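[recover] target loaded
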């Protein structure tokens, strides 16, 4: 998650505390919209892992991409 916060700071110029609030807001939003079974996978990605290919394809519709 630190990597994502740094990216938000870099892209927006927000101070770290506000970038952290923004990132946590988006993560909370995604967790409410995604099936509960994906929570652990999202947490793993935020900890530095990557999403499985089948999950990326499934998320395409939710995030506005292709399925």
């Amino acid at each position: 998650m630190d990597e994502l916060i740094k990216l938000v700071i870099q892209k927006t110029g927000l101070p770290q505390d506000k970038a952290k609030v923004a990132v946590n807001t988006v993560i909370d939003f995604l967790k409410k919209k995604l099936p509960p079974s994906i929570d652990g996978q999202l947490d793993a990605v935020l900890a530095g892992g990557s999403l499985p290919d089948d999950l990326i394809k499934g998320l395409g519709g939710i995030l506005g991409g292709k399925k």
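[recover] notes: The mean pLDDT is 81.
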